[in-house]
Amino acid sequence: MPVDFSGTWNLISNDNFEGYMTALGIDFATRKIAKMLKPQKVIKQDGDSFSIHTTSTFRDYKLQFKIGEEFEEDNKGLDNRKCKSLVTWDDDKLICVQAGEKKNRGWTHWLEGDDLHLELRCENQVCKQVFKRA
Ligand code: VLP
């Protein structure tokens, strides 16, 4: 049985989100707003099918995927760049590679105790987010 990420999760820490957003080319004004946000994630996991809905008072982003099936990701409302994305398991971690214009782009989710962890990567920047169950 793999781990179950399902649930509603609230952001409690967000290290180097600024660096990550800058690497993605997010403009100054948007970065100022975005870094004040406390996004919530609603994750639904059904076998190898996932939906991850990241919501905030400013913008929402919804992602749906199946493990091992590459898909087109539009990043609408984020940096709006299209990627070919692929999510796989690495032990109990979910690893996403977002192949496209930006080098080294992707993210990793894992559970640690009662917390949901997320590492967001773009070029030479790493953002580390931690969420607690709502
Ligand atoms: C863009 C970069 C902030 C900042 C401007 C808008 C949506 C893993 C994965 C599933 C992500 C989140 C990416 C956040 C990038 C912000 C709007 C913030 C709320 O999550 O859970 O998509 O990639």
TrEMBL record:
Residue span(s) of domain Cytosolic fatty-acid binding proteins: 7-24
InterPro entries on file: Calycin (IPR012674), Fatty_acid-bd (IPR000463), ILBP (IPR031259), Lipocln_cytosolic_FA-bd_dom (IPR000566)
Keywords: Transport
A Pfam short name: Lipocalin
Sample GO molecular function, one term: lipid binding
PANTHER family according to UniProt: FATTY ACID BINDING PROTEIN
Family the UniProt entry places it in: Belongs to the calycin superfamily. Fatty-acid binding protein (FABP) family.
Protein name: Retinol binding protein 7
